[in-house]
Specification:
This protein has a single domain, classed as START domain (Alpha-D-Glucose-1,6-Bisphosphate, Chain A, domain 4), CATH 3.30.530.20. Helix 1 crosses helix 2. By secondary structure, the protein is an alpha+beta fold. It contains three helices and seven strands, in the order βααββββββα. The radius of gyration is 15 Å and the shape is globular.
């Protein structure tokens, strides 16, 4: 199955230290990203959308910088799993904080992905007061 990598950057009026918990913790992600997030005993994240579970491993974490969640696909044996990565950068020139989203999945409609992420980021901005 063909995969597509969508990437976009959003400016937020929040410090990396304030923003990071919203992209890296179960409680933070459940406020804007999905309906609910549970952490299983094996440290697997259970993302719930429309009462359907999607399991992911947190494969990368740099405090106040980035986090990557790789979704576990039990039906395929290859390692080309879907993932979502959040990177936080601060512009040296302006001091603005930027959140870069990378969404690697089977959804190849960039316009649909753009609309989806724009809506999610609007929700995040409301929460962080941006």
């Amino acid at each position: 199955m063909q995969k597509f990598k969508y990437s976009n950057e959003y400016e937020l009026r929040a410090s990396p230290k304030m923003l990071f918990p919203y992209v890296s913790t179960a409680s933070g992600l459940s406020q804007w990203f999905c309906d609910k997030v549970n952490i299983k005993p094996d440290h697997t994240f259970d993302f719930i959308w429309d009462k359907e579970s999607h399991f992911a491993e947190q494969t990368s974490l740099r405090l106040n910088k980035s986090v990557k969640f790789e979704f576990i696909n039990t039906s395929e044996s290859n390692r080309d799993n879907n993932y979502i990565e959040f990177k936080i950068d601060v512009s040296d020139l302006t001091g603005s904080t930027y959140l870069r989203i990378t969404d690697y999945s089977v959804n190849t409609d960039s316009e649909e992905l753009s609309d989806l992420w724009d809506g999610l980021i609007d929700s995040l901005k409301e929460i962080v007061g941006s």
